Amino acid sequence: SQKIEQNSEALNIQEGKTATLTCNYTNYSPAYLQWYRQDPGRGPVFLLLIRENEKEKRKERLKVTFDTTLKQSLFHITASQPADSATYLCALVSGANNLFFGTGTRLTVIP
Amino acid sequence: DGGITQSPKYLFRKEGQNVTLSCEQNLNHDAMYWYRQDPGQGLRLIYYSQIVNDFQKGDIAEGYSVSREKKESFPLTVTSAQKNPTAFYLCASSFTGGADSGSPLHFGNGTRLTVT
Question: Nearest CA to CA, how far is B75 from chain A (Å)?
Fold first, then answer.
């Protein structure tokens, strides 16, 4: 069956450290993978997109990698801040007009 | 400011009643989507529409209906046939080409529906 798994439901890290979130998938062949941020009671906000032929993408303190052999994407936040605390969702595009979402990882950055 | 507006933010209904959730966008996006979010589960697609007067079922369309009479609007009706309607509902839109072109989704801030 098709599955998208994000490594842990919750992740706590110290301010200033690098947070690494994992997204693993099975039985998909995604052309794109996206990462979103969701704050409590709000809709997700798009952060980054990476294509299947790209290994890495960066945007300010964010970095995403995409390994189609391992079927895995890693999402890094460097120099993390308490304001980075949120739930992060990975989503992959596979097939026509469908974006499949993982369950998310709730990140807490401790001051 | 461009964006997606969902209303109301909280909605309470008695079992057996139909209820309509509003979604309006002023981003001039062609594609619009409805997702449902439940604790411990990823967002699940209910319906999507790529153009006016056309829409397609998603993975969990049973018990729901939609209309797309205007580009800006994509209301969702939760009918009494939906077995477990209490959830957080999210509306989204994207540029032409939709999700399979990699276009990111722009989400509203959701409507939390409680049915008792």
Answer: 17
Q: Is the peptide bond before B8 cis (omega within 30 degrees of 0)?
A: yes
CA gap A31, B72 in Å, rounded: 28
Using an 8 Å CB-CB cutoff, list chain A residues near B40.
103
Does B49 score more than 70 pLDDT? yes
Decide if A26 contacts A81 (C-beta within 8 A).
Answer: no
Classify residue B37 by its DSSP letter. Answer: E
Point out the residue among B44, B102, B106 whose CB comes nearest to the CB of A32: B102
Q: If pLDDT is split at 50, 70 and 90, which confidence band does B95 have?
A: confident
pLDDT at B97: 62
Inter-chain residue contact A98 with B99, CB threshold 8 Å: yes
Helices (H) and strands (E) in chain B, counts: 0, 11
Could you give the dihedral angle defined by the CA atoms of residues B45, B23, B63 and A96, in that order, rounded to the nearest 10 degrees? -30
The per-residue DSSP string of A48-101 comes to: EEEETT-SEEEETTEEEEEETTTTEEEEEESS--GGG-EEEEEEEE-STT-EEE
